[in-house]
Specification:
Largest interface: A-B, 38 and 37 residues
Oligomer: homodimer
Order of helices and strands of chain A: HHHHHHHHHH
CATH topology of chain A: Tetracycline Repressor, domain 2
Strand content of chain A: under 5%
CATH class of chain A: Mainly Alpha
Distance between the termini of chain A: 62 Å
Number of domains of chain A: 1
Shape of chain A: globular
Structural class of chain A: mainly alpha
Number of strands of chain A: 0
CATH architecture of chain A: Orthogonal Bundle
Chain lengths: 203, 203
DNA sequence: GTCTATAGCCAGATAGAC
DNA sequence: GTCTATCTGGCTATAGAC
């Protein structure tokens, strides 16, 4: 329908701006402290207009989570296409991306205790699909890394996966950065090093 | 004043019950999702009575944090009194205590983004004193462990300290436990192992 | 689909009797 | 110090004009 494509494009651009604002605010303050008024103000539209695009605050957060997970899945697939790297390098590259996003203030956090948000996300098909696809792919790499002796095979693969996921909301990088004495890159590499050598097989 | 001691004792018992309820609710839902009504209901008194003991919700949380840090300081001092253990064993024992408290639902969490709470805590003398005393003592052990080659000396001591503190709010143990396939002790030891071998000196 | 204005709700905090 | 009842403000969400 070329007749409606311009309007649809405008719609997508507007919704993209909304999701960008939500993403930033979620990264800065988390879901509970983010208000819909702040989102509207940051986008520069009225609050009621927001609700024409998204039916609830939870839906706003879900949209931001979906977008960041699409980006994450892209990173995973990019790593899968590398033929020069082993599974450990790929896992590290994904964790590095998450840490860099977090330090750049672009990683939305899901304060794991909010029930309304969690139940909404659990019923969000696209979100759950992305979560499972990423988990499956990372899980396969983890099992392979354990088989090859790069990751301690006595650890449950779940523990390894959750430990990697937890880097996306690790408070340590932000606190270290706030001290002002280290660069982002230093912080990222230190955290990566302590994380992965903690998971590595005993020598 | 022996005349007033009975009343004062009752007061302390009542306030202790309040702090216990706050502690549990903070561990369960965090500061933002905990309501003062819930605290009052759990203690079995009216909300207005709470405000006779503590002037604000933030003060309630601060009291709970002070108590848990007094317990933590006690653990640190107990470890300092052990003559059979090296610094690494002592650091591990403290981290183990924090993880066990968390899995038992008794470790209050401070969702690091709330500004009203953080500013109140920053002006809370007893809280800051405890934080500094614990940090000083753990910091000394960390430096010693680095000098002795038990912890990677190329890592900033700050990073090591924050990494240990972060175990108290690590989401990994709770998620692993919720799967139901592992015991608390297994989870604690796995997390400790990955944490400390990540910090250990390269061999 | 955008806005202004407001409904409805809930949580933190307080008044005032006892 | 405890209670019941209430105030106050901020938040999500919606009504209704344009």
């Amino acid at each position: 329908m070329p007749r409606s494509s311009f309007r649809e494009q405008m719609l997508r651009v507007r919704e993209d701006a909304i999701v960008t604002a939500v993403n930033r605010l979620l990264a800065e303050k988390g879901f509970d402290l983010m208000t819909v008024d702040q989102v509207a103000a940051e986008v520069g539209i009225a609050k009621a207009s927001l609700y024409k695009h998204f039916p609830s605050k939870e839906a706003l957060a879900a949209a931001a989570m979906v977008r960041v997970m699409e980006q994450g899945l892209q990173v995973v697939d990019d790593q899968a296409a590398r033929h020069d790297a082993g599974v450990l390098d790929r896992l590290q590259a994904v964790a590095r991306w998450a840490l860099q996003m977090q330090l750049a203030g672009q990683m939305p956090t899901l304060p794991s205790q909010n029930s309304s948000l969690r139940s909404e996300l659990a019923t969000h098909a696209r979100y759950m699909d992305l979560l499972m696809e990423i988990s499956d792919k990372l899980g396969a790499w983890i099992v392979e890394a354990q088989r090859d002796g790069h990751i301690d095979a006595s650890l449950p693969a779940e523990l390894v996966l959750y430990t990697l996921y937890a880097r996306a909301c690790d408070p340590v990088p932000a606190v270290l950065k706030s001290g002002g004495r280290f660069s982002d890159d230093e912080v990222v590499e230190w955290v990566l090093q302590t994380c992965f050598s903690g998971l590595s097989a005993r020598t």
